[in-house]
């Protein structure tokens, strides 16, 4: 159906290809349409809780395709989303999907497909990546799949924010992670224009919704506000970031603020009844930060997925952060891709000398490659710490596109228990980042998560850095506790929260330190009782206790008791999933289960096997199987989708057999460059053009404007010998394709620098070739980045599809060269284009030499 995935920053294993196949395996011609029409995010959001429904609408006409199809789509959701309901409508027939163990759900779906019944299956690959399969799509029939989830918004100033991912970006997978669950959280195919659109339709009351990423419209409707996209529908190529603000904001608090959401008791499958709650502890406002010594380790992602503007933004942010260090502070700088390189083995004294060295270091370390974030972070955590009362921080600047979440987060949790811990903050630069990993790194690492788009000039980097720097201050309160007037309380979010029962009938959760700029969330449950009121109290060193009382009959959020239960269950499930993905030995599993609030006896054997296996590998396998069983039990108990469950819906009426399968692609994230993960050599030639269908780049024109060029002596010699070389062997790695001249772009805003469709260029490139660098010789010496039109770019096409585009200003800023990944096969058409949307080089252009190496 489709080839395995491969990207330049991942282990090579083929290229994802959108193909259609019929049931017996024979290929169909490429279908020039996508059966998925749109994805709509609709629902209600007020303050900290949102209940959203993701609606996928499938439809196509008989004129477009007269076959019955199956569609497979890998779509994103926030990593902590509590997915608790799926409803499928086939025409006029509505079916509520059933939650089952994943294997049973998959078998039910496959059997229905074999029997010619319409069916749908929703599964979860990694915390923020899901797969939707729909069998029995028919011409002229609309099929709608509604996936409902509960989300806990993040506190942001006086309001709350949500980050909703709309596309799944390629992620780096380590060789030893290929068999893991998270490794499947990859897009099935990636396109500049995936052929389907995104719409938004939210209602709210008591506040307003705004977005910095998408233009919105709002109108009053029946006592609430309805919010939609201003454009109606858009290409889903970036995260949708929304902020909810109350109509009247409260004045800044002078001491920590406690907010509690609680509802009536809810019965679970086992028969027990619990009151679920969510508590938020926010730090007070601060006019100035205390001047205390600081130690900063900055980790900068230089992997292939950071190519282009993201790379420049990351380097700029790193230098700004180091420049903030003052006398008495210490710092270090590391860059990582496949390997990690350091400015110094351990933190050194800050100052102008260190900053100058850091600037040269960033320019020199520009290889690109895989995203070994975990390896780099472990090295940073193991560096020698500065002694004394010092605020220690690791700042990671990345897009976080990796799949080994479990190991990374486990390492962060272990490090957080050290007495001289380093707090971990993340500045994530991408239009469609791995937001789940980013937010979890900051939450478990005691730091701040901030997001920037891929465009360095689109947002104020200094504002994001200031938010991270604010978290360096000394704790507002140390040893914070959340106390409840009940003898027992369970917490779901984070392992730092450990319940302690008191003799006075109260119990307490250990929250750790409260720092400026970082709120603390706790999701928990309490056995329901006849008492009508719940009292929550926050206490700790350095603060006066803050107390809140809520009623349990109606509850502050009584109408959303189910939502509070789902939030609690989602955090429980995420913790067990992470534990199931680690390589813990049995003894360590016992202690980790205790930290999650479970009885370690769950790992005990039965009967003759009570003592457990003798061999370590058997004990490890058995322990993880029991964690998986516990995960399944909890997910089914809370009615939640996770890695070991699936929602399946089957229409009982007999339908038509599936004749073809269509893989729905994801949009290439805004700001990404297609060439940074395309590996054309690992797929059939015809698949290259279909991998990245160009939705906005230069297209083949009837009268292309060819730039004036002259070949150097080495190129002329190569052209003469090319036919013989093609018969003998492919062109070796490092062969240079060169253009030299003044590339006037003319009224079309396009100049063709190199084109194997021309005889001379075809002779130059007669065999296979691989290119890893694009260089502009001479230009960087005569011009600065500010002298170059902002949108002027060099684009590379293979068989009509753009595989790389690099801004000329970025190339100049990098000293005249930038990394690309292009592999050319004999017989393909390769073009190198100068794209000039602003017509800055229409009538005048400097002499330049363009090389592919």
Describe this structure in words.
This protein is α+β, with helices and mostly antiparallel strands. It is 21% helix and 34% strand. The chain is built from 15 helices and 46 strands. The strands form 9 sheets. Strands 6-5-10-3-2-14-17-16 form an 8-stranded mixed β-sheet. Strands 1-37-4-9-8-36-7 form a 7-stranded mixed β-sheet. Strands 22, 23, 24, 25, 26, 27 and 28 form a 7-stranded mixed β-sheet that branches. Helix 5 (405-416) links the parallel strand 26 and strand 27 (423-429). Helix 4 packs parallel to helix 5 (405-416) and helix 5 (405-416) packs across helix 8. The longest helix is centred in the last third of the chain and has 23 residues, at 616-638. The chain is globular and about 85 Å long. The two termini are 35 Å apart. 49% of the residues are buried.
Task: Please give a quick description of this structure.
The chain is an alpha+beta fold and 853 residues long.
Write the layout of secondary structure elements.
Layout: E1 20-21, E2 36-46, E3 49-58, E4 69-76, E5 82-90, E6 93-96, E7 98-101, H1 102-114, E8 119-126, E9 129-137, E10 143-152, E11 154-156, E12 159-164, E13 190-191, E14 197-204, E15 207-211, E16 216-221, E17 224-229, E18 240-246, E19 257-262, E20 266-267, E21 273-282, E22 294-301, H2 309-323, E23 330-336, E24 340-342, E25 348-349, H3 352-364, H4 373-381, E26 391-398, H5 405-416, E27 423-429, H6 435-445, E28 446-452, H7 461-470, E29 477-484, E30 490-491, E31 499-501, E32 507-514, E33 520-527, E34 533-541, E35 546-551, H8 561-581, H9 586-595, H10 616-638, E36 645-650, E37 660-664, E38 666-667, H11 685-691, H12 713-728, E39 737-741, E40 750-755, H13 759-764, E41 769-777, H14 779-782, E42 793-798, E43 801-807, H15 808-813, E44 817-824, E45 830-835, E46 848-852
Parallel strand pairs: 2-14, 4-37, 13-38, 22-23, 22-26, 26-27, 27-28
Antiparallel strand pairs: 1-37, 2-3, 3-10, 4-9, 5-6, 5-10, 7-36, 8-9, 8-36, 11-12, 12-18, 14-17, 15-18, 16-17, 19-21, 20-21, 21-33, 23-24, 23-25, 29-32, 29-34, 30-33, 31-32, 34-35, 39-46, 40-45, 41-44, 41-46, 42-43, 42-45
Helix pairs in contact: 2-3, 4-5, 5-6, 5-8, 8-10
């Amino acid at each position: 159906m489709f080839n395995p995935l491969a990207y330049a920053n991942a282990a090579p294993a083929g290229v994802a290809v959108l193909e259609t196949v019929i049931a017996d395996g024979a290929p169909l011609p490429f279908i020039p349409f996508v059966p998925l029409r749109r994805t709509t995010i609709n629902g209600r959001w007020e303050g900290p809780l949102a209940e959203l429904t993701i609606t996928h609408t499938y439809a196509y006409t008989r004129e477009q395709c007269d076959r019955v199809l199956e569609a497979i789509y890998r779509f994103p959701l926030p990593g902590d989303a509590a997915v608790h309901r799926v409803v499928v409508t086939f025409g006029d027939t509505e079916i509520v999907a059933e939650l089952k163990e994943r294997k049973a759900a998959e078998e039910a779906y496959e059997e229905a497909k074999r029997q010619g019944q319409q069916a749908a299956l929703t599964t979860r690959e990694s915390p923020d990546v899901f797969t939707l399969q729909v069998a029995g799509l028919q011409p002229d029939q609309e099929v709608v799949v509604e996936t409902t989830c509960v989300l806990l918004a993040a506190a942001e100033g006086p309001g709350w924010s949500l980050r909703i991912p709309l596309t799944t970006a390629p992620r780096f997978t380590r060789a030893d992670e290929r068999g893991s669950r998270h490794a499947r959280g990859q897009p099935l195919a990636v396109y500049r224009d995936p052929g389907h659109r995104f719409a938004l339709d939210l209602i709210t009351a008591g506040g307003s919704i705004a977005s910095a990423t998408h233009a919105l419209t709002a109108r009053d409707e029946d006592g609430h506000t309805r919010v939609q996209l201003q454009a109606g529908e858009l290409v889903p190529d970036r995260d949708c970031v929304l902020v909810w603000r109350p109509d009247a904001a409260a004045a800044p608090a002078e001491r920590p603020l406690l907010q509690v959401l609680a509802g009536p008791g809810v019965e679970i499958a086992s028969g027990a009844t619990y009151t679920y709650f969510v508590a938020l502890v926010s730090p007070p406002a601060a006019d100035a930060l205390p001047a205390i010594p600081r130690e900063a380790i900055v980790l900068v992602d230089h992997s292939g997925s950071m190519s282009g503007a993201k790379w420049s933004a990351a380097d700029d942010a790193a230098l700004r952060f180091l420049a903030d260090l003052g006398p008495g502070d210490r710092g270090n700088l590391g860059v990582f891709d496949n390997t990690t390189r350091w400015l110094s083995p351990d933190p050194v004294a800050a100052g102008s000398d260190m900053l100058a060295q850091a600037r040269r270091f960033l320019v020199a370390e520009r290889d690109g490659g895989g995203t070994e974030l975990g390896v780099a972070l472990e090295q940073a955590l193991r560096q020698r710490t500065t002694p004394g009362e010092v605020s220690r921080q690791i700042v990671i600047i990345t897009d976080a596109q990796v799949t080994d979440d479990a190991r990374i987060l486990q390492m962060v949790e272990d490090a957080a228990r050290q007495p001289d811990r380093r707090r971990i903050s993340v500045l994530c630069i991408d239009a469609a980042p791995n937001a789940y990993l980013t937010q979890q790194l900051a939450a478990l690492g005691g730091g701040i998560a901030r997001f920037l788009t891929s465009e360095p000039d689109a947002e104020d980097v200094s504002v994001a850095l200031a938010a991270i720097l604010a978290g360096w201050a000394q704790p507002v309160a140390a040893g914070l506790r959340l106390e409840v007037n009940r003898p027992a309380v369970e917490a779901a979010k984070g392992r730092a929260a450990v319940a302690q029962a008191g003799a006075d009938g109260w119990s307490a959760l250990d929250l750790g330190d409260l720092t400026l700029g970082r709120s603390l969330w706790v999701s928990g449950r309490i056995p329901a009782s006849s008492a009508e009121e719940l009292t929550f109290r926050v206490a700790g060193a350095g603060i006066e206790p803050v107390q809140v009382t809520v009623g349990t009959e109606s509850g502050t959020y009584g109408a959303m008791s189910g939502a509070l239960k789902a939030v609690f269950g989602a955090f429980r499930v995420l913790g067990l999933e992470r534990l199931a993905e680690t390589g813990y030995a049995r003894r360590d599993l016992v202690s980790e289960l205790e930290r999650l609030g479970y009885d370690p006896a769950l790992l005990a054997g039965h009967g003759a096997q009570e003592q457990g296996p003798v061999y370590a590998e058997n004990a490890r396998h058995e322990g993880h199987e029991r964690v998986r069983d516990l995960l399944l039990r909890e997910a089914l108990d809370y009615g939640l989708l996770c890695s070991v469950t699936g929602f399946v819906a089957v229409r009982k009426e007999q339908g038509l057999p599936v004749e073809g399968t269509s893989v729905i692609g994801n949009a290439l994230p805004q700001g990404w460059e297609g060439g940074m993960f395309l590996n054309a050599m690992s797929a059939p030639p015809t698949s290259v053009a279909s991998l990245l269908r160009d939705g906005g780049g230069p297209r083949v024109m009837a009268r292309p404007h060819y730039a004036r060029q002259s070949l150097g002596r080495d190129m002329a010699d190569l052209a003469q010998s090319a036919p013989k070389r093609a018969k003998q062997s492919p062109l070796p790695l490092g062969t240079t394709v060169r253009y030299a001249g003044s590339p006037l772009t003319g009224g079309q805003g396009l100049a063709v620098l190199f084109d194997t469709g021309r005889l001379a260029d075809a002779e130059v490139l007669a065999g296979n070739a691989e290119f890893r660098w694009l260089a502009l010789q001479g230009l960087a010496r005569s011009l600065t980045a500010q002298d170059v039109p902002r949108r002027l770019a060099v684009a590379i096409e293979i068989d009509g599809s753009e595989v790389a585009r690099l801004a000329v200003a970025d190339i100049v800023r990098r000293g005249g060269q930038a990394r690309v990944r292009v592999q050319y096969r004999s017989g393909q058409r390769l073009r190198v284009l100068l794209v000039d949307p602003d017509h800055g080089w229409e009538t005048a252009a400097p002499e330049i030499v363009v090389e592919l190496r």
